[in-house]
Amino acid sequence: MKRLVHIFFLIITFGTQAQVSFTTEVSREKLGINERLKVEFIIDRDADNFKAPSFNGFKVIAGPNQSVEQSYVYGKSSFKKTYSFYLQPLKRGKLEIGQAEIEYQGKNYKSPPETVEVTAAVDNPNSPASVARSQMADAIHLVAEVSKSKPYLNEGVYIVYKLYVDRNVNLRNYRPVDEPSFKDFWSQNIDIDQLEFKEGEYAGMPYRYVELRKTILYPQKTGELSVEPLTIAVSVEVPTNRRDIFGRRQYELVEKTFSAKTRTFNVQPLPDEGKPFNFTGAVGQFDVNLTQSKNELKVNESLSATLKISGNGNLNLFNLPKLEVPTAIEVYDPERIDRVNTNASGMNGYISEKYTLVPQRQGNYTIKGVEFSYFDPITSEYKTKYSNSLNLSVNPDPNALQNNTNILASQDSTKNQKQQIISPDSQFKYIELKTNLKPKGSQQFFKSAIYWSLIFAPYLCIPFLLFIVKRRKNTTDSPAKKARNKANKLAKKYLSEAKRNIQDQNKFYEALERSLHNFLKAKLKITSAEISKEKISEQLLQKNIEQQLVDQFIGILEGCELARYAPNSSAAKEEDYKKAAQIISEIDKAL
């Protein structure tokens, strides 16, 4: 039995030793885009002809480095050959380390693939650095500065990314590696015409700095909101301890990845105390003005009244108050005009709505001034501004009076006209006693004038019937339904505006975003102040809308926020336009 047991264990040991092990080991399964990854391919045989994978999504910093370990302990031998690489990730997401190949005794072996997750840049990367890179880390700093860390909801703040460089370091170039994500913010980049170095200080020491990017942010949620860092790769000439034959210091060209720290905003909600009933979400400092094109006009003559909100604040993120006019004046849907610029202080300029008014009766009319409420973040209180009233003097139309006079005169002349008296002998004189009758021919009903009249008469009546149905529908619709129809028309108008401005990326995505918001206000009966991604998802799911449709709608909104500041092609904008129209149609059908 002892011999059999020994033979059995020898067979197992021989089978185990005969099996070749070729594995892949990574130093970390999750790392930041500014960190480095060590990858090792290990085989327990003295194999040759190693072939590394392509390392898609990574930049090879060092490698392959080969090492061999062999030991013999208590009669048992072990062997290990290792091929190691140091990699720098180039993008975020789940990246795969492909299969390496090696040859042993005429057979090819492949290592198993490994997947690692690359996240946004971390604040304290733990990658190793050479002496030159250590000097470079002390000489260059990427800093994200914010104008205010505790803003109110919808208050404009800015974040600026500054690159501080030591005076002894020669900056060659830089390239962005990972763009920051402004989730839960309405954002817009401020164009920097030319990168220019300025003198400044960092940690109390003199440095040169350059502003790489500046972005205006309007928080759309309350609470702690984080902004992912900007990550860039910088190439500089770093001085070394070596000198040339003339005694001049030699420099080394080094590239290193830098990232600004994650910045967190503590967004405060707008206070409920003192909030006016007509508040629609305006935050900033504003003025309101109401003007008219003419003071005196005739009946059925048109004039224009323009309501303008000007100032500094979230001009594109709230609705204007409605103009109330007397019932004797017909009013048409307003035309919106935006003249908004964005700079370091936020949005400034004006937005306006131009109304077309047509008086139906003569008289003197007064259009009440508009009341506009907003929240001032400087004084932390609500304020209300009032516009002036409009006075109109409507005179009668002389052409209409002349027509009425002619009609009355015609009626009077008809009444005063004497009747002609016909004698009994001639009262039947108009009857023809001699007829010219002809027998009925062979003319058929088919293809006759009456035939064609009866064929086309129903079709000619269709426009008349549609007009009657539309008039009846307009008279029976409730005010709420009319408001929803109006918002639908406004959404279609903005979609048309986005189509016209497909060459201008900012205007295209702003119009597309407004059309989506107006569609929601029409269907969900919510105000602009209530619009947020969480509120939209909650309301749509309560309406039994499928989760897939909700995710697509939120994706389009987020795409509009991001696409305004990323380069895009006309074909991509055309695709975004079609997606927006399709998702609006599908949600409308589901509702």
TrEMBL record:
<dbReference type="InterPro" id="IPR025738">
    <property type="entry name" value="BatD"/>
</dbReference>
<feature type="signal peptide">
    <location>
        <begin position="1"/>
        <end position="18"/>
    </location>
</feature>
<dbReference type="Pfam" id="PF13584">
    <property type="entry name" value="BatD"/>
</dbReference>
<keyword id="KW-0472">Membrane</keyword>
<protein>
    <recommendedName>
        <fullName>Oxygen tolerance</fullName>
    </recommendedName>
</protein>
<keyword id="KW-0812">Transmembrane</keyword>
<keyword id="KW-1133">Transmembrane helix</keyword>
<keyword id="KW-0732">Signal</keyword>
<feature type="transmembrane region" description="Helical">
    <location>
        <begin position="449"/>
        <end position="469"/>
    </location>
</feature>
